[in-house]
Specification:
It contains two helices and no strands. 0% of the residues are buried. The longest helix has 35 residues. With 65 residues, the chain is an all-alpha fold. The protein is rod-shaped, with a radius of gyration of 20 Å.
């Protein structure tokens, strides 16, 4: 699938520099970054839900201030 994204010149330059430093294709660099960001977001949401659940469990058990 092809997706077109408009980047600022500064961000494009940073991505080009990263790709050149790693001697890798910029498409792969961007794809990996998006995968990492989506996985991080999913883990962060799951951790937040677990924290809320723990808080509700503690509240229901009378462990609150």
């Amino acid at each position: 699938m092809t997706i077109t994204v408009k980047l600022s010149p500064e961000l494009e330059a940073k991505l080009q520099q990263k790709a050149a430093q790693q001697e890798r294709d910029i498409d792969l660099i961007v794809s990996e970054m998006l995968i990492n960001a989506l996985e991080w977001e999913e883990r962060d949401l799951e951790e937040a839900i677990r924290g809320i659940d723990r808080g509700l469990t503690d509240f229901e058990a009378g462990r609150s201030r």
